[in-house]
Amino acid sequence: MGVNKIIYKGYQINYYYRDDLLDLAKKIIDGDILEVNSEYRNSDRAVVRSIMYNDEKLILKESKNERKTIKKMISYFSKGEALITLINVNSFLDKNVFLYRPYVSIQKRNLGVIVKSYLITNFISNEEARNPEYFRNVCETINILHKNKKSHGDAKLDNFLIDENGNVVVIDTRLRGMGFLNVRKYYDYLNIKYDIKNADEYMRISKTPVYYFAFFVINFKKTKLFLKIRKLRKRKYNKS
C-alpha cells in the first residue's frame, strides 16, 4: 500500500491509513490551539508533546533540526525526516520488533528546502525501559534491527518504552540503513552501552577500525570542546 499525499496551504501531508487524522493535520497547519497533555522535550532539535484529539492520545513532534543551514541544504535532495520516518517504520515487516507507529507527516518547503516539519505518532506510555529486567530485550531488539540492515540512530533508553502489555517498544527512529561499513551499528552499540553497561552480554560487536572510528566520534561529542561549540551554535541558532 502506497503512501497517500495531499497539499494543504502549501504544506504536504502524507499518511497511509489514518485519513481520520487529516483534520488534525490541518489544525496544526492553521495554528489552532491543541489540547496538550505533556511536553516531553523542547530543544533546538525538536519539540515533542502528547496531545488529545477525538479522545485519542497522540504524540506530536515538531522538528527544528532541518531549519539549520546544513540540514536545510540536505533537505533539498531528501524526502525529509518526517516522511522518511513515516515510510520506513510503516514498511518494516519483522514482527519480532515492537515499533511506534507514525501516522501522519507534515512538511512545508520554501524554494525546495524544508522550513516546517511535523510528525504525528501513536502514544505508547510514559515508562522508559530503565528497569534492568528489560535490558536483554532492549539489546536483542537492537540486534534484530541490525539483522534487518536497519539502525536505530539514537539508541538510548529514552527511546525504548514499555507498553501496557509489558513489551519493549522502539520509538524516535527513522530506521535508516547501516551506513558505510555498518558504522551506524557501532553507534547504536556504543550509545546503548552508556545506559546498559553489560550490553556486551547481549550484543556481539567486532572491534574493527570502523568501531574505533565510531568510538572516537561519540566520545569527542562528549568533550568540553565539542559541548562548547554546540552551545555557541545553539546560541547563534536561537538568535536567528
What's the structural blueprint in terms of helices and strands?
Layout: E1 4-8, E2 11-15, H1 22-30, E3 35-42, E4 46-53, E5 56-63, H2 69-75, H3 81-90, E6 98-99, E7 102-110, E8 113-122, H4 135-147, E9 160-162, E10 168-170, H5 183-195, H6 209-220, H7 224-239
Parallel strand pairs: 6-10
Antiparallel strand pairs: 1-2, 2-7, 3-4, 4-5, 5-8, 7-8, 9-10
Helix pairs in contact: 5-6
Cα(first) to Cα(last) distance is 41 Å
- The average pLDDT is 93
Helix-strand makeup class: alpha+beta
Strand content: 25-35%
Major β-sheet strand ordering: 1-2-7-8-5-4-3
Radius of gyration of CA atoms, rounded to a whole number = 18 Å
Q: Total strand count, please?
A: 10
Q: What shape does the CA trace take?
A: globular
Helix and strand pattern: EEHEEEHHEEEHEEHHH
- Helix residue percentage: 25-40%
Count up the helices. Answer: 7
Residue stretches low in confidence (pLDDT < 50, at least 5 long) are none
Sheet of most strands: 7 strands, antiparallel
Kindly describe this structure.
This protein is an alpha+beta fold. Helix content is 33%, strand content 25%. The protein contains 7 helices and 10 strands. The strands form 2 sheets. Strands 1-2-7-8-5-4-3 form a 7-stranded antiparallel sheet, with helices on both faces. Strands 6-10-9 form a 3-stranded mixed sheet, with helices on one face. Helix 5 crosses helix 6. The chain is globular. It starts with a strand and ends with a helix.
